[in-house]
Design goal:
The complex is a heterodimer of chains A (about 700) and B (about 80). With about 700 residues, chain A is of the alpha/beta class. In chain A, about 60% of the residues lie in helices and about 10% in strands. Chain A has a domain at about 5-260: P-loop containing nucleotide triphosphate hydrolases (Rossmann fold). Chain B has a single domain, classed as Ferrous iron transport protein A (FeoA) (SH3 type barrels). In chain B, strands 4-3-2-1-5 form a five-stranded antiparallel beta sheet. The chains are: A alpha/beta (about 700), B alpha+beta (about 80). The interface between A and B is large, with 42 and 30 residues.
């Protein structure tokens, strides 16, 4: 890998950079991580006409080398640090021809870093349509670099681009754009000589960004600070002067290379679409319908493939038990590993579907209109307009929703969205609610038409939304961010989605989830399985012996088996743990049996129902609640003789499940998206405290 | 003095459909970002629309659309 010829793609957002990346690399790409940030590091390989293989690196889109976010900083780090793994030998600068002036600002900055560079002039067709005439040869001559017109979407001009790549020598040929020295007289020279920096512009960039650049040492940082003081360097004034100087150069370049034909400037199609899609009434109506469609598809349509996956694993488990020799190993493989794997793969349909929608919304340009419309309301509670989609997705499942927060540019907005999304009532809470509501809420109608049970369920949904808003509001004031919250955002023209990009994103997201979050999920579910299936030495033998005695022989074998698993669970590590936490959960109205269910359902909330069935030794699952319900209804407290599941206990339990982070998959995915154990830990802590306090209040008031 | 203030129109004060030419900026940090996005002194701006809740706003500058909050737009002084 090290000796590869490395080519980096650089350009503004929406310049077609990623499309070009896909065209150049095909399916031959890999997604990794840049250290410390959440942008994907996309690399791939491309075969050149001279037989060489080159590594293509897709760097994050940005408008300038002065980053607005940590993600954009990656570009500067890759280009200025020669030791960096992604430091390129050649840059392909992707420029949107219809918007050349602004695109060339970043170009002149990048060009001053003196790495060989080629301009890929994308969207020439669009430029022609708005009446722009660009003289490609004149542009190339003035800038001193090769300029290749391409259309990334239609894969036009790619062969020419590849030819241009092999024509590039090792020496950068781009002409000087601005007089860097004059922007900070003295300072640039001094940094150059003291830190042994070859290029004046790199020295200037160090002065601006030294605090953020990871590759500078502490000593170097201190020295730069001192030099800055010496010359009383003002970063923003210097940036403003630089930007103006660059635009002056660009205006000179474009003066006789680009001409605009004055064609009758009618209203553009995009503008007409915007009039409807961001309309006061229709805009929200359409957005609401789109959300409804997304919700319906991840909530209802994904159920078929999900149950198919589950059934396949159940079938595999049965086969396994039949053919593998009975024993610890077989149990571990089938009930531990296989079940854990099933728990991971079952998320595939929801992730794929949600990302299909999100990619389409992003690709068409609609997502930035959503941000535009929702910004005012969402900003009040510390969220971004783009937080709406993940939060609606949260009604189905927090896992894909949290993965989709990557589209939120502001780090702070993204963190808050990640922190509150798991509060939204997801589909895994439904079986728990359904069981408990049917247990304590009478099946009556109020006001003649509203079902009391439905009303209870709806209040839980409303509770989840309100709590998410309140927590977001609180976090807005707690989470500190060094980024200033800009909202200056491009509204790209509407386009058709790139369908192969949609498919590629679906595939990539599923793959990252399985390979990165999957490990954690499988590991924890194996631990939980061991806890629930094994006990201290001798305990299980005792249970076996007890059930062999004559007093149990009167029961039918199935009944006996269920009673046995119930006492085994009671005597397992999980059972012992459940009993030992009883004093802690007693104020919430929970007994040790519920304690066991809390522990086992840490893997996933819906496991609660299954555990209850095992503890009360009945057959039961999500779709057969009756027998579990009956048993729970007749359960009595051995000390008082009163029912265990009173309304107070049931509501306390529901509130607990509403707030508690009872889901390892979410924890794993939050870790993967924040790159830090700190965030899932904070989230787990605040949600558990919230759950405990809320349940305590509910139980003590209702009791 | 009063006369000058009257003439110093901010971008945030324009109505949809109105056009203005950028004169200067009142916030240095914001001005760097705005210029990077193509909002340069001398460049003309058309206000396209306001979001349904009145903020942010959408403008056209040098051939493409930007959205920005009113607070940010108020740092742009028009000629």
């Amino acid at each position: 890998m090290k000796g590869d010829f490395k080519i980096a793609l650089i350009g503004n957002p929406n310049s077609g950079k990623s499309t070009l990346f896909n065209v150049l690399t095909g399916l031959n790409q890999k997604i990794g991580n840049f250290p410390g940030v959440t942008v994907d590091k996309k690399t791939g390989y491309c075969k050149l006409p001279d037989g060489r293989k080159s590594q293509i690196i897709d760097l994050p889109g940005t408008y300038s080398l002065y980053p607005k976010s940590k993600d954009e900083l990656i570009v500067m780090e890759a280009l200025a640090d020669k030791q960096s793994q992604v430091h390129p030998d050649l840059i392909i600068f992707v420029a949107d021809a219809s918007n050349l002036k602004r695109n060339l600002l970043l170009y002149t900055q990048v060009a001053d870093l003196k790495i060989p560079i080629i301009i890929a002039l994308n969207m020439m067709d669009l430029a022609k349509r708005v009446g722009l005439e660009i003289s490609v040869d004149a542009l190339a001559l003035k800038l001193g670099v090769q300029v290749v017109p391409i259309s990334a979407r239609n894969a036009n001009g790619i062969d020419k681009l590849k030819e241009a790549i092999i024509n590039v020598g090792k020496i950068p040929l781009q002409v000087e754009s601005i007089e860097v020295e004059s922007l900070a007289p003295g300072l640039v020279k001094k940094i150059q000589s003291e830190l042994q920096v070859d290029l004046p512009y790199v020295a200037l960039q160090f002065a601006h960004q030294h605090e953020q650049l990871h590759f500078l040492t502490l000593d170097q940082n201190q020295r730069i600070e001192e030099i800055e003081k010496e010359f009383s360097f003002h970063s923003q004034k210097s940036q403003a002067a630089e930007t103006i100087a660059r635009y002056n150069f660009i205006n000179e370049v474009l003066f006789d290379t680009i001409s605009k034909k004055d064609n009758a400037k009618g209203e553009t199609i995009s503008n007409r679409i915007d009039k409807i899609l961001t309309h006061k009434i229709f805009g929200f109506l359409i957005f609401f319908l789109i959300l409804l469609l997304i919700f319906q598809s991840i909530f209802a349509w994904s159920e078929y493939p999900m149950s198919l996956i589950e059934q396949m694993f159940i079938w595999l488990g049965k086969i396994g038990h039949r053919f593998l020799p009975e024993g610890v190993l077989a149990n571990l493989l089938i009930d531990g590993v296989l079940a854990g794997l099933s728990g991971v793969l079952v998320f595939i349909p929801q992730i794929a579907i949600l990302f299909a929608f999100i990619t389409i919304l992003e690709d068409t340009g609609y997502m930035s209109r959503v941000t535009f419309m929702m910004d005012r309301i969402m900003r009040k509670v510390g969220l971004s307009g783009k937080s709406v989609v993940p939060m609606i997705g949260g009604f189905a499942c927090a896992v894909p929703s949290i993965m989709s927060t990557r589209n939120i540019e502001s780090w702070k907005d993204r963190m808050i969205t990640i922190m509150v999304t798991p509060l939204i009532t997801c589909s895994a809470r439904l079986p728990v609610y359904a069981l408990l509501i049917s247990l304590v809420v009478p099946n009556q109608k109020v006001l003649g038409f509203m079902s009391l049970q439905a009303l209870a369920l709806m209040s839980l949904y409303v509770l989840s939304i309100i709590s998410a808003i309140i927590v977001a509001y609180v976090m807005k004031h707690i989470i500190k961010s060094r980024e200033r919250g800009y909202f200056i955002m491009e509204l790209p023209v509407y386009r058709m989605p790139r369908w192969n990009n949609v498919l590629m994103t679906m595939y990539e997201k599923v793959k990252t989830f399985i390979t990165e979050a999957g490990k954690v999920i499988i590991a924890v579910s194996i631990v939980l399985w061991v806890l629930a299936s094994y006990g201290p030495p001798g305990k299980f033998d005792e249970v076996e012996r007890e059930y062999k005695s004559t007093e149990f022989s009167k029961y039918p074998p199935e009944e006996l088996e269920r009673m046995k698993s119930s006492s085994k669970l009671e005597n397992s590590f999980a059972g012992i743990l459940g009993k030992s936490i009883e004093p802690v959960i007693k104020p919430l109205g929970f007994d040790w049996k519920i304690g066991i269910a809390l522990i086992t359902s840490f893997a996933a909330r819906e496991v609660f129902v299954g555990t209850m069935a095992t503890i009360y030794s009945v057959d039961g699952d999500d779709s057969h609640l009756e027998s579990v319900r009956e048993k729970m209804q007749s359960a009595r407290n051995p000390d008082t003789g009163l029912p265990v599941f009173t309304a107070a206990v049931a509501f306390s339990l529901m509130v607990f499940y509403a707030f508690a982070m009872q889901c390892i998959s979410t924890i794993a995915v939050v870790y993967r998206e924040t790159k830090h154990w700190k965030w899932p830990a904070i989230q787990f802590a605040y949600m558990t405290v919230l759950a405990y306090v809320a349940s305590f209040l509910v139980y003590q008031v209702m009791k | 003095m009063f006369d000058q203030q009257l003439r110093a129109m901010k971008l945030s004060q324009l109505e949809p459909g109105q056009t203005g030419v950028i004169k200067e900026f009142t916030d240095l940090e914001m001005s760097v970002k705005l210029m990077e996005m193509g909002c340069l002194p001398g460049e003309s701006i058309v206000v396209e629309r306001f979001a349904p809740f009145g903020d942010p706003m959408a403008i056209t500058v040098s051939g493409y659309q930007l959205s920005l909050r009113k607070l940010e737009a108020s740092t742009i002084i028009l000629q």
